[in-house]
Design brief:
mainly alpha, 2 domains, four-stranded antiparallel beta sheet, two-stranded antiparallel ribbon, 20 helices, globular
């Protein structure tokens, strides 16, 4: 009986993980080169590997030299030549052939997979974003090789862990297998989660550590929550919204001093992974100058290009960012469910309305809607400050919180409100799935 009970409790999660794995197996062979902003993050990770003297471990995947000419490899023909940016990539050379340019201080030599055709890409370190997430790519490339599937292994692992965590947290909130199953299915059907979660973008890292922050706070591990929030910022700057949410909760739970301690601990955790980069860019002065330059850049509109959107568009699925065309990867999120979850977050936080619709909630349970709403409003702040070219794939940061807010609302609704609360949540999820039918059909046809 105990085994049957355990199987019944965890079988829905196993099914979701199997479906996610089959999806990965089907789609990864079609993503056989750089996808979206992988051109920046993977290139920076490769440059880091070469800068710290570990490039020889990528030698089997080719070598890029610049400028070319004059830095050409003797008796070798490049497989790719970048005429505009004076780079050449060779996929089959020996170390003895490289000896001449390795000793030439004017030549840049980078071992590994070929670079995207971008100016100064062989020296680019992606200082505009923190570095913790890119260390995962570095480690994966060193262990598994410099190839597209290797870059994405950490993202895919973290995405699978997010599915597990969402199911587990939903089960702890509700003690209801149906609610937990709905939460994991809703996350799996979130187009941004499926899109960003399978490629080497930083958003999957900030999304995972944001979820981990919420989980730690929900389970009353407040120091661990602060550490996780620091890792969220160390992965990508919008993780600061996660820190602010945790600091607000600590201020409410205890006092302002503890809120400041939460921020201080998160800041220390954020700083540690940046230290190697501080060294590589020539010291703290250069690093701080670069950071402030890019923080200013984050409050300005980007040049015309990908489809931009505002945070309300994310709730209704308008102007989704396209990470890949064939097969189609649209960061649409789960529109409808997002809208309901944000509305529920407001109601759950506002004490007067909450008292009418929901039973008493602890501050630990409220950490989930507080975190979701803080992040969403944080992106509105960036938009108001001037960066009007936001992209829908940013929703990866809070995608896993959406089904948890829905489960919290459904499980804590008072008897008279329960039916309506459940109906609204189910309608939001159903709408989010239904508007994806064309995209899902195109995806299936592309990988079939």
């Amino acid at each position: 009986m105990a085994i049957l009970s355990l199987l019944k409790r965890w079988l829905p999660l196993v099914i979701v993980l199997v479906v996610f794995t089959l999806y990965l197996v089907a789609i990864q062979p079609h993503l056989n080169s750089y996808t979206s902003d992988e051109i920046w993050y993977v290139s920076a990770a490769r440059n880091f590997i070469n800068e710290v003297g570990l490039g020889k471990y990528l030698a089997n995947y080719g070598v890029t030299v610049a400028p070319s000419p004059p830095c050409n490899i003797t008796d070798a023909v490049p497989a790719i030549y970048y005429k505009d940016n004076l780079m050449a990539w060779y996929n089959n050379v020996t170390y003895s052939q490289l000896r001449g340019i390795l000793d030439n201080s004017t030549c840049i030599v980078r071992f590994g997979y070929y670079y995207p055709d971008k100016q100064s890409i062989v020296t680019y370190l992606n200082i505009e974003h923190p570095w913790f997430g890119k260390y995962f790519m570095v480690l994966s490339m060193l262990l598994l090789g410099d190839k597209p599937i290797s870059w994405r292994v950490p993202s895919m692992i973290l995405s699978a862990l997010m599915l597990i965590l969402v199911y587990y947290i939903a089960l702890r909130i509700s003690n209801n297998i149906a609610y937990a199953s709905l939460a994991s299915v809703a996350l799996l059907m979130d187009a941004t989660f499926r899109d960003v979660g399978i490629i080497a973008l930083l958003d999957v890292y900030v999304g995972f550590f944001t979820l981990l922050t919420a989980y730690m706070y929900f389970t009353r591990r407040y120091t661990a929550s602060a550490i996780a929030s620091g890792l969220a910022v160390a992965s990508k700057y919008p993780g600061v919204f996660t820190v602010l949410a945790g600091a607000y909760l600590e201020t409410y739970r205890r006092n302002g001093i503890w809120g400041l301690i939460y921020i201080a601990l998160a800041f220390i955790v954020f700083l540690i992974p940046q230290l190697p980069i501080v060294y590589l860019v020539g010291g703290i002065h250069n690093y701080v100058s670069d950071v402030f330059f890019y923080l200013k850049w984050f409050t300005e509109p980007r040049p015309p290009g990908p489809v931009a959107s505002n945070p309300f568009d994310w709730l209704i699925g308008v102007d989704a960012f396209v990470n890949n065309v064939t097969p189609p990867l649209y960061a649409m999120g789960l529109p409808g469910a997002y809208l309901v979850a944000v509305a529920y977050s407001v109601i759950l936080i506002e004490p007067h309305i909450r008292g009418r619709l929901f039973s008493r909630l602890t501050i630990n349970e409220l950490s989930i809607p507080v975190m979701l709403l803080t992040i969403w409003l944080g992106y509105w702040l960036i938009f108001i400050l001037g960066d009007t070219t936001l992209y829908s794939y940013y929703t990866m940061q809070f995608a896993a919180l959406v089904p948890l807010v829905l489960v919290l609302a459904m499980s804590r609704a008072k008897p008279k409100a329960k039916v309506w609360v459940i109906m609204a949540a189910l309608a939001g999820v159903a709408y989010g799935i239904s508007v994806q039918w064309r995209m899902l059909y195109s995806l299936i046809m592309a990988v079939a």
